[in-house]
Design goal:
- The chain has 18 helices and twelve strands.
- With 481 residues, the protein is mainly alpha-helical.
- It is 51% helix and 10% strand.
- The protein is globular and about 75 Å long.
- The strands form five sheets. Strands 3-11-10 form a three-stranded antiparallel β-sheet, with no helix packed on it. Strands 4-8-7 form a three-stranded antiparallel β-sheet.
- The relative contact order is 0.09.
- Helix 11 runs antiparallel to helix 12 and helix 15 runs antiparallel to helix 16.
- A hairpin with a 6-residue loop joins strand 7 and strand 8.
- The chain has two domains: 242 residues, SET domain (Beta-clip-like); 211 residues, Serine Threonine Protein Phosphatase 5, Tetratricopeptide repeat, CATH 1.25.40.
- The chain binds zinc ion (ZN) (3 copies).
């Protein structure tokens, strides 16, 4: 049985939000509130040949299940560890002739698991999938249509099993998946590779300014114990000191949207009206839509409208050019857009921040590090005024900006950013996460380089050339998508 720490929390009635989780003792910033292994999880359809179906690590040449020819594994250790959750699936795929979509595979894995454990896989599990909300009554006609497709596909796939389930029951499971499934990333936390269900995590309600964050931690790959080797665990970590008895919250959406847009997103995907403090009072909405003041004068409302309308169109074109891989075009439109935005919008305006993000990523991909660093710096400065100081996205963006500065040879700024990123990731990811470890190595490296730089710039530049020819560490950190 997987060790799971659940002694610091309890379920309580959280008013109109339904059930919630609260602390039973004070939690410190960065403390792990609880750890939970997945109840069921599957690799995305698009990743099924590139990611181990047991431990969810990316693999160049994974070993294929000889029977279904669908599942792939790092090696026999991972395959053996996964057999218990794969055996029914393996038979079903063979009988069905092909693997169904990820949602259907997840629902089936969840049901096989429930049959085996009568709903509860761990003593520490505080709820069952039967008890979770499905929100089917609030679904739109399109959502209901998709639900029906999933249920039909499921019934075809499930045919060979002795125990059959009613359409209503299967619909409930899909409803639960729809609003509770958690996206799983690869071992470096850089790419989404699958989706899983974590019943205890489902009990944690949303707040746009949450006191916790969820992070996936794959544990140690070198562990010989296969139970640890293949673990897909999440950690709920405290972003600040949480007093005893306080409700634990995470954010289901990115904070960088004005409150009415976050509320719209939450309503559409999770079927509730967010009444958190930040939404109710529109906190930081003004900064996200702020205009630039020059000598105490604001631009006219007409000009602001012209620039924001232009930005919306430009951002759509940028996205299109990006999808087409036309990076030259992306940079061109970004520059044109910034030319219009810079005199009119403040540097915390969401539209300007979006352009900073894209142009810094693309320029760094094109190895124009000096210019990329400048945009990355301005982006991070804007982010710091908007995000919670310990927000994970802020930490990751700061880390990328640090690496870009390092590539640009701006060692002083690079080291400063890497240190700031480390201070955030040690809280959001913890000291044992692979990204934190990479960042720690990067911090040591930049610290040493900075010392050399201060002593002798010439020596620094020749040393940097040598390090850049061995890019292994930095490219691992920069590769975001
Ligand atoms: Zn594996
Ligand atoms: Zn198989
Ligand atoms: Zn809110």
């Amino acid at each position: 049985m997987t060790p799971q720490k659940m002694d610091a929390v309890e379920v309580f009635a959280a008013g109109e939000k339904g059930r919630g989780l609260r602390t039973t003792k004070e939690m410190k910033t960065g403390e792990v509130v609880f750890v939970e292994a997945s109840f069921a999880a599957v690799v995305f359809d698009s990743m099924s040949m590139h990611v181990c179906h047991s431990c969810f690590r990316r693999q160049v040449n994974p070993h294929r299940c000889a029977q279904c020819k669908f599942a792939h594994y790092c090696d026999r250790t991972c395959q053996r560890a996964a057999w218990e959750e794969h055996k029914h699936e393996c038979a079903a795929i063979r009988q069905h002739g092909k693997a169904p979509s990820e949602n259907v595979r997840l629902a089936a894995r969840a049901l096989w698991r429930m049959q085996k454990h009568k709903g509860k896989a761990f003593d520490t599990q505080l709820t069952t999938l039967d008890l979770l909300e499905d929100h089917i009554s609030a679904m739109s006609p399109e959502d209901l249509k998709q639900l029906k497709v999933d249920v039909d596909n499921f019934q075809n796939y499930w045919q060979g099993n002795s125990r059959q389930y009613s359409t209503d029951y299967v619909s409930h499971i899909f409803g639960v998946i729809n609003c509770n499934a958690f996206t799983l990333s690869d071992q470096r936390g850089l790419q989404a590779v699958g989706v899983g269900l974590f019943p205890n995590l489902c009990l944690v309600n949303h707040d746009c300014w949450p006191n916790c964050t969820v992070i996936l931690n794959h544990g140690s790959q070198t562990a010989l114990d296969s139970a640890l080797h293949s673990q897909r665990r999440i950690e709920l970590r405290a972003l600040e000191t949480i007093p005893e008895g306080a409700e634990l919250t995470v954010s289901y959406v990115d904070f960088l949207n004005v409150s009415k847009d976050r509320q719209k997103l939450l309503k559409k995907q999770y079927y509730f009206d967010c009444k958190c403090e930040h939404c109710s009072n529109g906190i930081k909405d003004d900064l996200m839509m702020a205009v630039k003041e020059t000598d105490g004068k604001k631009p006219s409302a007409d000009l602001v409208k012209e620039v924001t309308d232009f930005s919306v169109e430009a951002l759509a074109k940028i996205e299109q050019a990006r999808i087409e891989g036309n990076f030259h075009e992306v940079v061109k439109i970004c520059r044109e857009c910034l030319g219009k935005q810079e005199p009119v919008l403040a540097e915390t305006h969401l539209y300007q921040l979006q352009v900073f993000r894209v142009i810094s990523e693309v320029l760094s991909y094109q190895q124009s590090f000096q210019e990329a660093a400048e945009y990355a710096r301005r982006m991070v400065e804007g982010y710091r005024k908007l995000y919670h100081p310990n927000n994970a996205q802020l930490g990751m963006a700061t880390m990328r900006a640090g690496v870009t500065h390092w590539h640009a040879g701006l060692i002083e700024a690079a080291h400063g950013l890497i240190c700031k990123a480390y201070a955030i990731l040690i809280i959001t990811h913890g000291p044992h996460h692979p990204i934190t470890k990479d960042l720690e190595a990067m911090r040591t490296q930049t610290e040493m380089e900075l010392r050399v730089f201060k002593e002798n710039e010439y020596v620094y530049h020749s040393m940097r050339e040598a390090v850049l020819s061995n890019k292994h560490m930095s490219t691992r950190l920069v590769k975001s998508k």
